[in-house]
Amino acid sequence: MWEKGISAFIGLGQSLDTIKNYLKLAHQYGYTRLFTSLHIPEADPKSMVSDFQSFISEAVHLGYSITADISPQAFQMLGASHSDFSPLKKLGLSTVRLDYGFSATQIATITRTSGLEIELNASTITPVILQQIIEAKADLTKIRACHNYYPRPETGLSFSLFAERSKLFREHGIPVLAFIPSRSCPRGPIFAGLPTLEKHRFVSPKLAAKELLACQLVDGILFGDPLAQEEELASVSSLDANCIELQVTVATNISAAERDIVFAAHTNRTDPGEVVLRSQEARTLCHTVIPPRPALPRTVGAITIDNKEYLRYMGELQVVQSPLPGDHRVNVVAQVIPEELFLLSYIRPGQPFRLKEIKHES
Fold first, then answer.
1. Closest Cα partner for 16 from 226, 179, 185?
2. pTM for this structure?
3. Residue 274 pLDDT > 90, yes or no?
């Protein structure tokens, strides 16, 4: 089970009622973690604390686990200090994000004495720093990690650095989260999304989430931007971390038998071919003769089903990973949409996958 999260912020122009209603909406779709911050330069400090307390109270009531990024000034405003986190715990926070200004020894001490979980910045912590925290006798059961989000275009992480830093924490059993953007409500003042990965800045949140789940390098995903649309919340919440979903367009006039095979649950064989993924279930689902149709070139992402001319292989479903010529024994029945072709590389041997039909582009 992966952890689904949202972000919400006091002091960015949305009313308190709007934010509370958003918490309720996301909760209905299974979101259980909330990221917030009291380090918002644009916010009015005079009203921030009281609004923040009311906002956190509602989140606690709904059952959210709450991570707060709190600046030194915010510590003072809430009556806490680096040696006394009790006011934060009393407020209802479950996790405090420690970014800058804490030594490895201080972080280790806080994990043992604060009664809170401590979140580290997965994007900036190096192997040396993490090892120092461990050697300072940190309670690793109290440590979480979450990547940064990046408001300015061109500053998000590369996938290679994201993978390197994520693996560092997962090797120590520390859960890692990352952010995806909302296309419907990007946060100001830049309004260009709040993703962890730069490549995700202008893609749909569902596609960004698909990649983060498929790469198996995170334990949870959060919307970085506040007030994502209900459709976005629903689409991301519906994803299964253990099964890669590929959206496909379907060829015209495919048979009912072919359609039943295409949209069944599939598992890539533990011994797939060099250039194709192979469903281990498809042939057992074939209960009627599949006649041949005109042979078509098999492009990358083509979904094929072997027809009766392939004898005992009739019903075999494959997903093409390298271009192949047409074959009269093989029917091309669907095609993975271009935006999702990259997901094919994440379907490992023994990996469940499913195909979801979308309408042909007009």
1. 226
2. 0.94
3. yes
